[in-house]
Design goal:
- With about 450 residues, the chain is of the alpha+beta class.
- Helices cover about 50% and strands about 20% of the residues.
- The chain is built from 10 helices and 14 strands.
- The strands form 4 sheets. A 5-stranded antiparallel beta sheet has the order 4-3-7-6-5.
- The two termini are about 40 Å apart.
- The N terminus and C terminus are likely disordered.
Length: about 450
């Protein structure tokens, strides 16, 4: 079947588990899958941690921004309300003298008083430190309208004429039952924004460090979790290599003895068949365990089927009709699948010597027998492993039904195979194909192995 990529370990030179694991790790598809799984787990662990940290950091940034804005609004709002109580109207005249001595006014970054002028923009008085520190006329009109509409302290963000971004609070000054003026207090946003940006940078740096730590911890934990699997794969590969050596050596010796003693051709064919069976089972075990990968190569399916049929012990009743077909496949696995289909048809397709027709078409191997067939309800179940029966399409019970074993009523009632058709289905799936049973025209059963056809290569232009 499939040749191993490294020499088998002999009993005289046993390999330690660590050595076996190291050798397996360099070429084993199963180990490669474990490594990909480990990387995926590391990325998943790091990605989950990163997502959680991003959510928490976003919430923290928003809370900090809202908290700083609320703090600024409270600061400038309280200052504006306090200064609005220090000025008053007397017979329509606005008195600003207390602002010159008020400590709140002296410590304000930006201070101004807006007074209503009928039909005109508000007049600006007592500007600290300079007129350019205030917003432009349009913004002043906007602030004044907000004070008139809200009739209470309002807060807005607006740039000064110099371009500096400030947070403003305007508190109304009442002249009887109307608002005659407003005290405007501003504070720069630069310091608060700088502190907020510093917090964002520290959060980004901290989250990055935590994600890296999480990835490292996840990688370490996943590696420790997979270490027993790697050791088990190494031991399994070592066992399969030793089993291949221990089984092939006596078979080769048996063939030499049979040839030397002049045994019959039937004996030699049985030895060859046993050798192919052992090789196939070992290759199947390695492939299913993931310690060996199947290599698909372009091959002539019609020639492979004809050669396989000719090697059967009783191929006189088998007729092959074929046309040139090229597929991508493993020749040993496909030969085993074809051999199982034909032998099943010979064994359960009617009396001994009943004709069996094998047809090879593009992407298809069809084997027809003339037996009683398989009930429609059981045609999928016969492809399952361990399903055995005494009639229908299948092989004789395998070693799973040892001496003294009484099959269950459910198993005994189902026509099928212990391993033959299960191997056919397995080989088909490895080649991205299908295996199925259908009724044959005129009676009997059709077993079909469908494979993707390999497109012929276009010859290069001269």
């Amino acid at each position: 079947m499939i040749r191993p990529r490294r020499p088998a370990a002999t009993p005289s030179t046993p390999s330690t588990p660590s050595t076996s694991t190291s050798s397996t790790s360099s070429a084993s598809p199963a180990v490669a899958r474990l490594r990909r799984t480990r990387r995926s787990m590391t990325l998943l662990f790091a990605g989950t941690t990163a997502a959680c940290l991003v959510v928490l950091a976003t919430v923290a940034v928003r809370i900090d921004a809202e908290s700083r804005r609320s703090g600024l609004d409270h600061e400038v709002g309280s200052r504006a309300v306090g200064l609005s109580r220090a000025v008053w109207f007397d017979d329509g005249a606005l008195h600003l003298e207390p602002l010159r001595e008020d400590e709140l006014a002296r410590s304000a970054e930006v201070l101004a008083v807006l007074e209503i002028a009928p039909g005109e923009s508000p007049s600006v008085w007592n500007v600290v430190p300079a007129r350019t520190a205030l917003p432009e006329e349009d913004w002043l009109d906007h602030v004044w309208r907000n004070v008139l509409e809200e009739q209470e302290t309002v807060s807005v963000s607006a740039p000064s004429e110099e371009g500096e971004r400030l947070r403003w609070a305007a508190a109304p000054v009442w002249d009887g039952d109307r608002i005659g003026a407003a005290v405007l207090v501003g504070t720069a946003l630069a310091r608060s924004e700088h502190d907020h940006d510093l917090l964002v940078r520290w959060l980004a740096l901290g989250c990055t460090a935590l994600v890296c730590c999480a990835a490292a911890v996840g990688h370490l934990l996943s590696g420790r979790a997979m270490r027993p699997a790697l050791v088990a794969l190494g031991r399994q590969e070592q066992f399969l290599a030793e089993a291949a050596h221990e089984l092939r050596t006596p078979l080769a010796t048996l063939r030499l003895v049979a040839e030397r003693d002049g045994s019959s051709d039937q004996t030699l064919r049985m030895v060859d068949r046993l050798s192919r069976l052992v090789t196939g089972l070992l290759a199947r075990a390695r492939t299913e365990a993931g310690t060996q990968r199947v290599e698909l190569v372009p091959l002539r399916l019609d020639q492979l089927v004809e050669t396989t049929v000719e090697e059967l012990p009783e191929h006189g009743s088998v007729t092959v009709g074929s046309e040139p077909v090229v597929v991508l496949g493993d020749p040993d696995l496909l030969a085993q699948a074809v051999r199982n289909l034909v032998e099943n048809a010979q064994r359960h397709g009617g009396p001994a010597g009943s004709p069996v027709e094998v047809t090879v078409a593009p992407g298809l191997v069809r084997v027809r027998d003339h037996g009683p067939g398989v009930p429609l309800a059981d045609r999928e179940r016969v492809f399952a492993r361990g399903v055995t029966g005494a009639h229908g399409t299948g092989s004789a019970p395998t070693a799973m039904s040892g001496p003294g074993t009484v099959p269950s009523p459910e198993t005994a009632a189902v026509p099928g195979t212990g391993a033959g058709l299960a191997i056919v289905r397995w080989v088909a799936e490895l080649h991205h194909g299908t295996a199925q049973l259908t009724d044959a025209p005129g009676g009997g059963l059709l077993a079909e192995l469908r494979l993707p056809e390999h497109p012929p290569r276009t010859p290069a232009a001269p």
